[in-house]
What we know:
Layout: E1 3-6, E2 9-11, E3 27-34, E4 41-47, E5 63-72, E6 82-85, E7 88-91, E8 97-104, E9 106-113, E10 120-127, E11 134-141
Parallel strand pairs: 5-11
Antiparallel strand pairs: 1-2, 1-3, 3-4, 5-8, 6-7, 6-9, 9-10
Amino acid sequence: LTGEEIDDIAEQTDADGEATFTGLEAGEYEYTVTKDDYEDGEGEIEVEDENVTENVTLTEIPTFDVEFNVIDDDGDSVEGAEIELNGETKETDEDGEATFEDVQEGEYVYTVKHGDFEDKENVSINIEGEEISTIDITVELEANDD
């Protein structure tokens, strides 16, 4: 855990994942625990006359490898196409493939460009699933009329 907050009082967890809040008066407190790449943990804790321990388990947000296969209108692989996804750009290899690793679930927009073909811009995809670790996307490019 990297952060824990109770009623606007923030604490950073230590190497053991523990955070201690001192000086709290008796009462009920809502808390939120956050860490990058994990779903937030939220709850409520009641403080009375003695020390209270609250165990919070965070669930890692699933990630996927997204593989693009870029082909032309004849079905041949397109080498050197630039694909932009989530602010990252990759170039296809000789097999027309490029892979983006560790993409979290969500709605994304991608763009594919190559000087010899018409651009595919602002194409929406939804990355989701429980069992899927690799998502294959085939993009067919049409030749420029130039």
